[in-house]
Amino acid sequence: MLSVIFVLLAFQVVQAQKNKPIDRKATRQTKALYHNLRKLAKKQTLFGHQHATEYGHGWMGDFDRSDVKSVTGSHPAIIGIDFSGFSGRPAEAIQTAKERVRKTVIDTYNRGGVITAAWHFSNPISPGGFNWVDSVSKPAVGSIIPGGEAHAQYKEILRGVGEWAHTVKGNDGKLVPIIFRPYHEFDGGWFWWGKPHASREDFITLWQFTVSYLRDSLQVHNFIYAFSPDNKFRTEAQYLERYPGDEWVDMVGVDNYGDMGRNRFAPDTAALKLKIVSDYAQKAGKLAAFTETGLESIPDTTWWTNMLLKTMKTYPVQLTYVLVWRNDMRSPTHFYAPFPGQVSAPNFLKFYRDPYTLFEKDLKKIYRRKFLGIF
């Protein structure tokens, strides 16, 4: 009888935590963002662009500029940033990176936009940067988890992230909520934290420790934690192979370039993977997102409506956002969002005007629980 009672109590605890942030001490603004993203996803999806306001095609550091705004009149609803500069550099360079990213975060919040942070984390125990380089890289995951020889070093790096997270305050004096997406595309081998370089058990330990240390030890309460493998799965079981557990994840996502034109145009396959992610999110009480996608150089003049929008609308999925990758300031070909004169810009305007997509100027009071919706 007692065992039955314990099982029921455990079930009730799990159910009570559904559709809520895993951080019970999350700030009011973070809880409101979580709630409002979930509400909007029932019918619409926020559009995002990595580094959209930091730089773009042929420019850098202009005030209140983005290539997306230059085409549509509005910034993306989601602005992607990166914690890549927060470690693995001289102290002065780290401080400069933190100040630059802080400004982007605060400016976005003050305008009413939403921030998501990736982490291209330089290998803390070997050269090679965040990529896996056969000649120099060492598998670091086992070294930085509890009991590893570089664990203290990892805690120091996380302390730097945590201290920074306590400094990002908007004009209202409130901490800015951030969708934090560490260790993305972990099912591939191109990053040092990838599947070939870390056991399943060590990867899960790394994820759980990272969340616990930031949330419980460093008292960071303005993060929403997003889990995002690449597109290598075909079933829910494959998707969840390295999943750390519902109590450690707020948002489930997928990064998918391969099915979206990089390797093949496979909208049906991409749509099925989005359905797997969205179905799990609804079952587990999580948010879902298309966390990274895009087609480099966008040579397909109808990619936005005939590929991206079609893929997201194939099934009745609930996706909080879709984010395309960055527009390099120097490269003439490395860009994922259009700029004035780019061949897909007219089609992007159709994508922008579709009622399904939301941009920054569409959002209204997304950091308040009494959400007023959109225009």
Instruction: Kindly estimate the percentage of residues that lie in beta strands according to DSSP.
Output: 5-15%
- Strand arrangement, major sheet: 1-4-5-6-7-8-9-10
State the CATH superfamily name: Glycosidases
**Helix proportion of residues, in percent?**
25-40%
Q: At the first level of CATH, what is the class?
A: Alpha Beta
- Which topology does CATH recognise? TIM Barrel
Major β-sheet, in short? 8 strands, parallel, barrel
Q: What string gives the helices and strands in order?
A: HHEEEHEHEHHEHEHEHEHEHEEE
Based on Cα principal axes, name the global outline: globular
Based on secondary structure, the structural category is alpha/beta
**Segments where pLDDT lies below 50 for 5+ residues?**
4-10, 371-375
Number of helices: 11
Mean pLDDT: 95
Span from first to last CA? 55 Å
Q: Got a strand count? A: 13
Q: Any idea how many domains?
A: 1
Radius of gyration: 20 Å
CATH architecture: Alpha-Beta Barrel
Structure keywords:
single chain; 375 residues; alpha/beta; TIM Barrel; 13 strands; glycosidase; mannan endo-1,4-beta-mannosidase activity; GH; hydrolase; EC 3.2.1.78
